[in-house]
Every structure is written in C-alpha cells, then in structure tokens.
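Dear Dr. H.,

I hope your travels went smoothly. While you were away I took the liberty of generating a structure for the chain from your last submission, since the lab meeting agenda had it listed for discussion. I wanted you to have the full record in hand beforehand rather than looking at slides cold. The sequence, exactly as received, is reproduced here:
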Amino acid sequence: MKQSCEVAIIGGGIMGCVTAFELARRGLDVVVLEKGVVGGGATGRSSAIVRQHYSHEITARMALYGLRVFERFDERVGGESGFVRRGFLLLVPEADRSGLQANVALQRRLGIRTEVLPADVLPALVPGLDPGGLAAAAWEEDSGYADPHMTTQAYAAAARRHGAAVEQGVGVTGIAFERERVRGVRTSAGFLRSAAVVNCAGPWGAQVGALAGLDLPIRAARIQVAVFERPPAYRRPHPVVLDFVHASYFRPETGGLSLVGRIDPGEAAAAVDPDDYGGHADDAFVADVGDRWVRRVPPMDESRSRGGYAGLYAVTPDWHPIVDEIPPGSGHFTCAGFSGHGFKLAPAVGVMMAQLVTADPAPEFDAAPFRLSRFAEGKPVRGAYEYSITG
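The corresponding predicted structure, in token form, is as follows:
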C-alpha cells in the first residue's frame, strides 16, 4: 500500500467506489480502503432498485441523475451495471392518493417521466394483479433495477483508470488528527497519510465514526429478501412494484425469479452486529412476504420458494443519510446512513461528495439537508407524505 494520498476513503461499497471515481476523475490522489472485498458488504445484497419516486426536490433530482447514469452507464462510467428497464409501479390506498398526486406533480416539474394511473388499468402492466384496496399508482416507464455487484465493480475499475488505488483486505483501525485536522489513517497494512478521510462504511459507519471520536446515529439493521420462482405462465418479467397496502415490494430477477421483501420500517427496528447478523432469510419471513405477494398477485400462489437471504441497512433516525464534514474544517467527512435507498442515489452522491471534499463553490447537489446537526436542530428529513418515509 502506498504511504500517502490526498483522500482516503473507508469502505469499498457503492458509495466508496462512486466517491473514489468522482474524486479521481477530478485529478485527486485517492485510496479506497476495504477490509473485505469490493461490493462484499451491504451493497452486494442490495435489491438495487432504480426508481425516482421521492417527495423532496433534492432526492428526486438525485434519483433522476442516477437513472440517467444507469441508462448510459458504459459511456458515463465504463463497463456494465446490469441495468434493466422494466418500469416501476408504486401502489397506494385511498388515504395516500392526494400525496401520490402531489409527489408525481413535483417529479414531473423536475423532468421525471412519471404519471398517475387508476387502479383498474394496473392488471395490464402486471398480469394477475388484484387491484383490491388500491386507489391509484405512480408509473415510471424508464425505471427498473441493476446488478449491485457489477455496478460497484465497474465504479471501482473506473476509479482505478483515473489513478485511484483500491486496497482490499485492508482494515482501518484508527483515524489520526493533528491540530483538529485529519492527518491520516491507521490500517492493518500500516499508516496512510491523507489530507482528507471519507467514511463510506455503511452499516459500519458508526464504528468508523467512533475512530474519529464521533457518536453517529447510524445503526446496522438486518433486512431480508425472499426469492421465488414464478409459475411457468408468468415467467415473463414484471415491473418493479412497491405495494404500500401490503407494505411489500417485488421485482423480477433473471431465470424467471422474483425478489420479494418488506417496506415496513418496523423490520429495521433492532440493531445488529454487522459482522455477525445471519445471512439467510428466516422461514417465517419467506412465508410472510410470500403471502403478501399472493394477496396482490393471486396467481403467484403457484410459485416456488427458492429461500432467501439477509442483508444490511445503515439506518439513521429519519431514514436519510449523513453527508457532512464533521467536525467542520477537519477534513473528516461522513457519507453513510442511506437506510436502504442509497443505491439508486449513488451516482449523484458521488458528485455531491466530490464537490463537498473539494469545497466546490457551486455544487450541483447541496449536501446541507443531510448535515449531522439536523438531528440536534430538530430538522430531520421526512417524507412529505405518510407513505413516503424514505422520500
């Protein structure tokens, strides 16, 4: 490992690799420090849904930017992201109709191609879907999903092409300061001098923050995903669907499979050890989300369970990230706590972080809403409507 750099990035998941790419292509000397392998943590178990439905202008703009990158990934980054355009449906009951309409109006003003559809047309988009309990849906024709491993590896490779070093199997054991400024990081491979450090450690974000003397409100939460093989008559891929009536989502996967999970914040209530959390889905979870899926799409009663897996969210009190220089002027930056909806925002987050680290006077994406102090100020980022906790 080299002995010095301008920016040391802790964590080789999607956020660390995107940030490295954006900094390196601006000419900075960057080193990514990953204690395992690139994409081997929470990122690798992401459902990698790419959608734009948010209720705040900043997050909607970031999601739109992300989609544009995924649509032209080889040109914008290089390599493959595995992005598949299948469309995205967000289903809501009558109580959320007005909120949905307001969100769609905001998104359309920003240039997002989305529309509100009545419940009775939805079976044409998702064959077999039962519209019971639904009032309306938001439809995004351009959205879909990507491959989290391919995307992260492609960003890491692109960062290397621009001169960044990506060190795998190198754990960080300390962060050194001198006169309240970062001077480097202690690692399992020796000391690395650096003028700036970026904490992109995801579910390990609080642990890394503690190395800098910070008490970050980020907890690791175990999140499960079930895998089902659809019946032969329904092998054709369906859109990505978020169902706020049954608090669940489902998206297609290759080989006639579907990934099914919950969108219930209560699932992430308990903190876990990110190094020991149990990587297989519980049988009770698989049965529960399978039942939710069948209630929405009854023909899926003939699907076959293929088990499932568990991943990690890095959850903050308001389910939005901390993107900030902490303390101000220290050269120590935090970019963590995306609470399960960071993948789609990652291309924009990379730009945001690069502009924050370089003190760009006219940033494309303002990080101020995601400052750590918002919690003490009583100004959390909240979804504008009941159903949009992560919006």
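Two observations you may find useful: The domain at 84-144+219-315 is CATH 3.30.9.10 (D-Amino Acid Oxidase; Chain A, domain 2). The first helix runs from residue 14 to 24.

With kind regards,
E. W.
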